[in-house]
Amino acid sequence: RRAAALSGSAGPGRTSDGHAVALLANIGDVEDAVAAAAQDVEGVGLFRTEFVFLSSSSAPTVEEQAEIYRRVLAPFGSRRVVVRTLDAGADKPLAFADLGPEENPALGRRGLRLSAERPDLLDAQLQALAIATRETGADVRVMAPMVATAEEADWFARRVREHGLPKAGVMVEVPGAALRSRHVLAGMDFASIGTNDLSQYAMAADRMQGALSELLDPWQPAVLDLVAATCAGGAATGTPVGVCGEAAGDPLLALVLVGLGVSSLSMAPSKVPMVRLALSRHALTDCQRIATAVLGARTAAAARAVCLEEAVAEV
Ligand code: PEP
Ligand code: MG
What we know:
binds phosphoenolpyruvate
């Protein structure tokens, strides 16, 4: 038992029977990168690049961006770094990418939709990433936020590859993309589920409204069904699926996600040790059994209770 606890305390994430689950960090700037790289994480699963530019009044140049990306990538050496292209709009407005007022910003021209209207911004970012990748030799993977359709995914992947960047992925945070994931993910190198926005859009509940937290709970059965649908699409197309929303840092929910087929979890670095420990105490088949039981629950509270019951029974 002591050996099991110790084996769960460091090194790559894995279940008790050795199934690998990459444990990654969410970061928002150079400082986060330096701090996360010093932790026991296998790399970065979500670099929110828009965070770097929240106070910039004009668009950063290619050289300015390349310098920042170098400083983010270098500390991770050969560990993977998943970089999300600008997710501007709604809760993360950028002054230099403002397309004017909208009635419903969360449903508006944000994320990849904004990149489609301002391809100059996307191209500058991809060019800067290509420079920083070449210079650091980092394992960079680029992903798009707020993808809704297969056409959008294809358009993004083409642009990423045109810049010589080797890996293109999409965030799955729009229910339509989750439901059609076998088509959206075809041709992509990876996908990452953003449970924060996926919950917001699945439950029609503004993520900025604290009063709606029950609806925004990632244990909501409808959200878990969408995660399961995405994993099925990933399995059908041979595309690895990760999770980089808040849900990934919940040790119990992590068991469910792994049971559904998720192969990487990205979270605040402080949450990694508990998730690592939870995984180390359960075999993949336990996680699969837990996931099946959880998907049968009628409510978020019941889903959580069923998971706890099953997980504790197995430790
Ligand atoms: C998400 O939506 O779950 C996500 C990881 O991205 P963000 O929170 O930055 O929208
Ligand atoms: Mg999001």
